[in-house]
Amino acid sequence: MKGVDDVEEKPKDIIRFTAEKLSVGEVSQLVVSPVCGAVSLFVGTTRNNFEGKNVISLEYEAYVPMAENEIRKICSDIRQKWPVRHIAVFHRLGLVPVSEASTVIAVSSAHRAASLEAVSYAIDSLKAKVPIWKKEIYEESTSSWKRNKECFWAAGD
Amino acid sequence: MKGVDDVEEKPKDIIRFTAEKLSVGEVSQLVVSPVCGAVSLFVGTTRNNFEGKNVISLEYEAYVPMAENEIRKICSDIRQKWPVRHIAVFHRLGLVPVSEASTVIAVSSAHRAASLEAVSYAIDSLKAKVPIWKKEIYEESTSSWKRNKECFWAAGD
Amino acid sequence: MVPRCQIEVLYFAKSAEIAGVRSETISVPQEIKASQLWKELETLHPGLADVRNQVIFAVRQEYVELGDQQLLLQPGDEVAVIPPISGG
Amino acid sequence: MVPRCQIEVLYFAKSAEIAGVRSETISVPQEIKASQLWKELETLHPGLADVRNQVIFAVRQEYVELGDQQLLLQPGDEVAVIPPISGG
Asked: To 10 degrees, the CA torsion angle through D23, D26, D30, D34?
């Protein structure tokens, strides 16, 4: 952790879909950089309720290769807009129990405004454009495929 | 992690000053709630440079009881402005090596906009109002007390 | 007659439940409007009519609405049926 | 004559380096302007004059600028000298 003589690392976009439990600490650590003073993160977690129904768990699926491409585009948009260093976007697939993370987004930057705004933009864009689907599983043993209000082709329905 | 029959936890403000290394994962975990879908975090880390000088480490001190009070006021302001659940503000004291966290702020909320905006407000306010001081220690064995540009009484100097 | 080719159709989420398959290979004209391609899928899986107004295609991983746009398909191209997304 | 009382003065960061102490107990008038209290501290630690324009007080943990504001001090009150902050 000397920093002083470090070869300056190239900006990295780290995109991962996994059935494993997500670790906020690990994703944060992936974007830390000695030339940065700020890491901003967003963690999406499973809620236990939707419109009064008790949610037992969520199940996620994705069109993985396209989802990775769409996230790569979002990373590229972010780099056009803000001077950020590293970007990590993790999304869990399969069953996600209540209170566990479905997504972790982390961005590092020299100064805080860039990473704070970039993280906000990243989760907004992910919800609007990345082909991932969530099915809520309710206590009453029913289930429902959800849609983000940000989904760009079905928002008005 | 059932969520369904959980007694709904009261909103918590968790404020801590410590000489220990901060864990982003642990602070995140402290604010997770089964009724929330979002956790937003900001991590302040030690940069290895300032105006061309190589920074070896930082040393932090605080007027701890007042700093805790000021953070409590910020938490209260946040709750006036946004519907958030739990708020955690951790700040490390003493020596902080390059790339390690000096502060971790985490906020949970049912929907993401509230916690994203609250975290941004929290770090802005912390930098403007909370009596904490950072001394940068440079490679050349000099050092300098820093001031935040947000510091409300000395911004113009 | 427009020459035909074989493409791979992928179904996700609700569309996969309705179609009863997650992927299938079908033969379609190489030049075809997106809306016409959708009609071919409805012929194979009539239940898809229910979600017509909610879905979009991804052709070679790029979004294409189910409208008048002319698709130029190559053998082996991947076309996905994309119900409203809900990641995050 | 205004009655006097003993208060606890705390110094932080650069002001602690200049004063050479982190806290001290001093005797001051119970009613005193903030600017006058600062002069008392400068008498004790002349080097503090260098940072006069950069500091603020915290009286019983509330910020008070070094101006005309009248302070009403009680024995044992805590007054801190607060250089520009730099947390975060």
From this structure: -60
